[in-house]
Amino acid sequence: MDEADPNPFSQVPIEITISVGRARPPVRELLKLQRDAVLALDRRVDDPVDLYVGDRLIGRGELTELEGDQAGQLAVRLTEVANLRGGL
User: Fold this and answer.
1) Helix (H) or strand (E) holding 30
2) Is 88 within the bounds of a domain?
3) Predicted pLDDT of residue 84
4) Does 63 map to a domain?
5) 56, part of any domain
6) Is the pLDDT reported for residue 88 higher than 70?
7) pLDDT digits (tens, 9 = 90+) for 10-69
8) Could you give the strand order of the β-sheet that contains 49-53, starting from the edge strand earlier in sequence?
9) Which of 10, 19, 39, 73 is buried deepest, with most CB atoms within 10 A?
């Protein structure tokens, strides 16, 4: 354990889910989907994305593309961080 950090849980990895939007097609349309079908979402390309840990909203951000050795990889630039005791 790192003696500089007294909290043993600080090094435990967590999974953050990024939500870029939702689609709500009727089941009949969902059953018709095939390869290359386009499913419209309820957000625009420049809208903020939501960051969740489990079902708890922890922040918002904007999608960005990394550069250099990681060029082409998606990332999120945080624009809002939730007060984890009270929300955004």
Assistant:
1) helix 27-32
2) no
3) 76
4) yes
5) yes
6) no
7) 889 999 999 999 999 999 999 999 999 999 999 999 999 999 999 999 999 999 999 999
8) 17-19, 49-53, 56-65, 74-81
9) 19
Domains of the chain: total = 1
Give the three-state DSSP class for 69.
helix
Which structural domain range is residue 74 located in? Answer: 8-81
CA 52 to chain centre: 6
Q: Which residues are CB-neighbours of 11 under 8 A, at least 6 positions away?
A: 2, 5
What's the length of the chain? 88
Token code pair at residue 6: 């007294």
**What are the Cα distances from residue 59, in Å, to 19, 24, 35, 87?**
11, 24, 33, 9
Do the domain assignments include residue 52?
yes
Name the residue among 62, 56, 59, 57 with its Cα closest to residue 20. Answer: 62
CATH number at residue 58: 2.30.330.10
